[in-house]
Amino acid sequence: MSYKIGLVGKPSVGKSSFFNAATMNDVPEGAYPFTTIDPSVGEAYVRVECAAPEFEETCTPSVGTCKDGTRFVPVKLVDVAGLIPGAHEGKGLGNQFLTDLNEADVLVNIVDFSGKTDIEGEPTENHDPREDIDFLEDELDMWYLEILNKGIEKFETKYHGAEAEIEKDLAEQMSAFRTNKDEIKQIILGLGLTLEPGTWEPEDREELARSIRKRTKPMIVAANKMDTPEAAANWEEITNDPAYDHLTFVPASAHAEKALKNAAEAGVIEYVAGEDTFDIRGDISSEQEAGLEQIREFIHSYGGTGVQTALETALFDELGCMAIFPGSANGSKDEKGVFRDCFILPKQSTTEDFAYHLHSDIGDGLLHGIDCRSKRQVGSGHELTHRDVIEIISTN
Ligand SMILES: Nc1nc2c(ncn2[C@@H]2O[C@H](COP(=O)(O)OP(=O)(O)O)[C@@H](O)[C@H]2O)c(=O)[nH]1
Ligand SMILES: [Mg+2]
């Protein structure tokens, strides 16, 4: 039931490196296309400031961990097979890629900001990363357009009687994108189009496909390989380019994250994933130290390696999810421990949604909730916010 974050991007941008750094699993890496044949699914974590210290408690997480007041809550990470231009027509790994994409709740587009790989992932110099961003968005849009066109075709050839509703047929055709007819109708009207697809120009269809894609496939960009000197200049230029204002960029170095985790595993450093610093332990060679100091400088100036931040930005900012702690307003304790759980809920979740998330019986018997910080009662329709600590009062 955990959220799934999909890593996408053309070949050789560092998807597998990023995936490995975030999950510390072993997936083959290499500077050539199609290293990743099957999408790999692994467990990664998002950080949430633990609520237990505010209640002078020590948490006992049922899943994930807690380090110095930072909860690491599990999410699923998918390393999606490399996409190349024309994938929507079945080029490269084509349709398999598209099928895998549908399972992700939110996407992180990994882009090689060093400019040292061309659009197909082959080594080059001075490649503009904007081309990769455009190509990925276009590729997704063309995929949506194809499905949209099929839906329109079906609508136009089918006998409807008096019940013709284009939004209904499109929602059916696009059901894999987790949309519905109300949303489709809203998007159509929002673009100033009528509900008569016969009046739509080819550009209108493209615009519609793009709008539906933007709504149903939230995506951020992880600017990877920021540890290279070329990347800084690209970062400056692209994040200041108004044409990309619609995207959120996170500077990242999968290499740095992996190096730090490896060093931590070897007992050479103490490093908490996502932090912008680390401590060196024990004896290391001056060469090792120089390498680590270089990484220290990098994470210091970018506020971390960006691997954790990218996942958290995707889940909490782009998708709007929130973390909710079940609590006890009168301080009563479960024998298994306190602050055991930290649940990730969709945006705009209410007390009632949370109750149903816990169990359908708890939802059915919901009386009200209690905000454990203020000790105030909250109604079933009350919208929760990130890091709320809520006790559910239910007859069941
Ligand atoms: N400098 C630098 N190189 C990286 C980084 N991440 C990945 N790479 C290199 O980019 C190449 C492709 O990486 P890989 O993870 O296989 O890319 P994928 O095809 O997108 O899965 C490999 O040579 C990696 O070592 C990074 O953060 N910095
Ligand atoms: Mg790969």
Automatic annotation (TrEMBL):
Residues in OBG-type G domain copies: 3-272
Gene Ontology terms: cellular component: cytoplasm
Pfam families tied to this protein: MMR_HSR1 (PF01926), TGS (PF02824), YGR210-like_G4 (PF08438)
Gene3D superfamilies registered for this protein in UniProt: 1.10.8.470, 3.10.20.30, P-loop containing nucleotide triphosphate hydrolases
Record has Coiled coil as a keyword: yes
CDD domains, sorted: Ygr210
The keyword Repeat belongs to this UniProt entry's keyword annotation: no
Keywords annotated in UniProt: Coiled coil, Nucleotide-binding
PROSITE patterns: G_OBG (PS51710)
Chain segments annotated as coiled-coil in the UniProt record: 145-172
Molecular functions per Gene Ontology: ATP hydrolysis activity; GTP binding
InterPro entries: Beta-grasp_dom_sf, G_OBG, GTP-bd, P-loop_NTPase, TGS, TGS-like, YGR210-like_G4
Protein name: Redox-regulated ATPase YchF
Organism the protein comes from: Natronocalculus amylovorans
